[in-house]
Amino acid sequence: MTTVSISADIKAHWPQGHSSYSPGSPEELALISIDLLVKTLGTQAAQSFIAQLFEKYPDDFKGTSDIEKE
């Protein structure tokens, strides 16, 4: 499995406020993304969106040794 590090500054704004994030790993980025999806779409729609993404991978997918570029 490949180790991936992320260097990003994310600023999210909405009418009720804003948040800033600095994820350092894919896991941290995923948590931020899911949180923003739920806040934007609601729980059911966010789960549906994420389920669509998982459909492209087999259930036993172990990750890649090289990062794939799409």
What would you say about this model in short?
The chain is an alpha+beta fold and 70 residues long. The chain has helices at 26-41, 43-54, and strands spanning 10-14, 17-21.
Sketch the topology as an H/E string, one letter per element: EEHH
Question: What percentage of residues falls in helices of 4 or more residues?
Answer: 40-55%
What order do the strands of the largest sheet run in, or round the barrel if closed? 1-2
Assembly status: single chain
Largest sheet at a glance?
Answer: 2 strands, antiparallel
Mean pLDDT: 88
Strand residue content:
5-15%
Q: How large, in whole angstroms, is the Cα Rg?
A: 14 Å
Structural category: alpha+beta
Amino- and carboxy-terminal Cα gap: 18 Å
Count of separate DSSP helical elements:
2
Assign an overall shape: flat
**Which stretches of 5+ consecutive residues score pLDDT under 50?**
none
In total, the number of strands is: 2
